[in-house]
Amino acid sequence: MEDINILKEENEKLKKMVEFKSDLISISSHQLRTSLSALRWILKMFIDKDLGSLNNEQFNMLQKAFNSSNKMISLVNDLLTLSHTEDTMLKLQTKEVDLINTLEQTIFDFSGESNKKNVELIFIKPESIIPKAKCDEELIGVVFQNLIENALKYSKPHDNVFISLIQKDKEIEISFRDNGIGIKEEDKNHIFDKFFRATNALDKDEVGSGLGLFTSKNIIEKHGGKIWFEESNGGGVTFFVSLPLN
Ligand code: ADP
Q1: Could you tell me which residues are beta bridge partners of residue 167?
Q2: Contacts 24+ apart (CB under 8 A), 76-80
Q3: Is the C or the N end of the chain the one with fewer CB within 10 Å?
Q4: C-alpha distances out from residue 211 to 110, 161, 190, 229, 230, Å
Q5: For residues 131 and 125, is the Cβ–Cβ distance under 8 A?
Q6: Partners of 228 in the beta sheet?
Q7: Residue 89 clears pLDDT 70, i.e. is over it
């Protein structure tokens, strides 16, 4: 009995520490994001020449500072998503979810980005009726966002990204196929590591933090599902997510 009480006490202490840590991350990230956004806004005014004309050197330097502020904001946003995800994962809010709807909504949310990139997002809908899956819709939405964002980021202009959803027995399998830069053999074992970014992704000068796949894997595994990738036909990568129906 004594041991159980000690364990309970320790458990409570740990819970408080976790809460404190995530509060700290989210408060500091929010404050960082506010200051960085103000900085970015000022830099944008210079670049747009709202504050007077600039010579070439000044313009180039300010453009670099503007790009760096964008990268920092993106990192802070990913940290906020991770900390929010860790909090919500302590208590998954599951319900019956129509994953086709969730996917369609996410694809729609990326339509501006895909136009800008000249990459078409093509959803291959299932021919039969798909049962709803029991999951936390918000968190699964985060996974779909990460995978679509990556497929767009690492594609070449005028490429297509194919997204499909099928039922396989008691599971739903969703795939995201691109023909982009692909993942090199030596990087394959690290893709889901926290903060990992492959050299070909860094060379592409795309904004990223290496947190998206780590967060996605945590979410999918918390749901009793699986996430993996394979080389696409014709080059590039296909990411798969498999979720149990119950
Ligand atoms: P990031 O913010 O860098 O995209 P992620 O955690 O989402 O972080 O992805 C980790 C790394 O995995 C990326 O930096 C990139 O090297 C690689 N990666 C992810 N998705 C793809 C993809 N569709 N094609 C090629 N490489 C990818």
Answers
A1: 172
A2: 76/29, 76/32, 76/33, 76/36, 77/33, 78/209, 78/211, 78/212, 78/215, 79/25, 79/29, 79/209, 79/211, 80/25, 80/26, 80/29, 80/30, 80/33
A3: N
A4: 19, 22, 12, 16, 20
A5: no
A6: 240
A7: yes
Whether pTM exceeds 0.90: no
User: Do 147 and 239 form a contact (C-beta atoms < 8 A)?
Assistant: yes
**Continuous segment of H or E residues that includes residue 120:** strand 120-124
**Ligand 1: centre distance to CA 220 (Å):** 17
Query: What is the model's pLDDT at position 34?
Result: 85
Reduced to 3 states, what is the DSSP secondary structure of residue 134?
strand
Give ligand 1 pocket residues (Cβ under 6 A). 146, 150-151, 154, 178, 180-183, 191, 196-198, 201, 208-214, 237
**pLDDT (tens digit per residue) in 114-146:** 998 999 999 999 988 999 999 999 899 999 999
Ligand 1 mutation pick, 110, 163, 191, max ligand atoms within 8 A of CB? 191
**Residue 236 is encoded by which pair of tokens?**
């590039």
